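Input record (one chain):
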Amino acid sequence: MKSRFRSPLAALGLLAFLSNCATTVKEKEKPSNTSQSISMPAVTQARRPDSTGAANTALDARTTGAASGIAATPATAVASDAASAAALAADRPDPNALSATAASAEREREKKLSTADYRQMLADADATLKGRPRNATALLQRAKAKSYLKEYAAALPDYTSAIKYQRNNPDAYYNRGVNRLMMKQYKAASTDFATAIKYRPDDKESFFGRGVARMQMYQYKPAVADFTRAIQLDSTYADAWEYRGISYSSFDKMSEARRDLEKAAKLNPEAAKSLRRYVGNADGRAAIKPAPAPRTPRPMPAKK
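The corresponding structure, as predicted from the sequence alone:
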């Protein structure tokens, strides 16, 4: 089966799609003979899911504020721990987790780090875990560092351990979801993004991530719903407009596909390539229809 996803690299190096196909089709939404083929958008300025996370990069909440990075007093740390424990017991979102806006900013910051920085993250986390092997923050930081270094299989146990000790942290689920996308575990990735949404329902990138996972499984209508929610949260989210347009074209909603892809092209000129590919040009020329087969995403190599 030939591939139908081309490389989508976000401005700071978010996702690129490999050549292997998704192997699971869960719904009766596999492309029809008249459906447009799918390939993921090229370089855009919009954010996409990656191996970063919004968790505090400090390894000990007793010395650094979980959300702000400002030094915390022992009394504040104890109160914070108590609030976290109460939320965990009640299965509510961790009150120390970042907001969706702050999470996006933290992801952007971490994406700018170098390979040496990621290795330092890994070393710092290892040092903390030697004395505190159940430190959820350190486990998450080590997992993210491994993901950045493209050690996806090695990162997965750390994400799972972090969730074991802090099961209401949306950042851990979001990052494990992305890591699972890299490993082509699309159903599990979709579940992780869904849990991230449960604990942070206004995170557009979690909706986008679940939409991508669903596209990998040919679940285009549910993917449309996820991209729609991402657009509702951020009307300038060019990638969400583009991917929703591509999803529409996959089950022959061509007027909707054109509308979304034209909107995406206005927000990001690179999306004009998808407009031509999936719905044809304004002059009436037909869209290109290569053989279908989605690929799995991976982060762009870290800067040296």
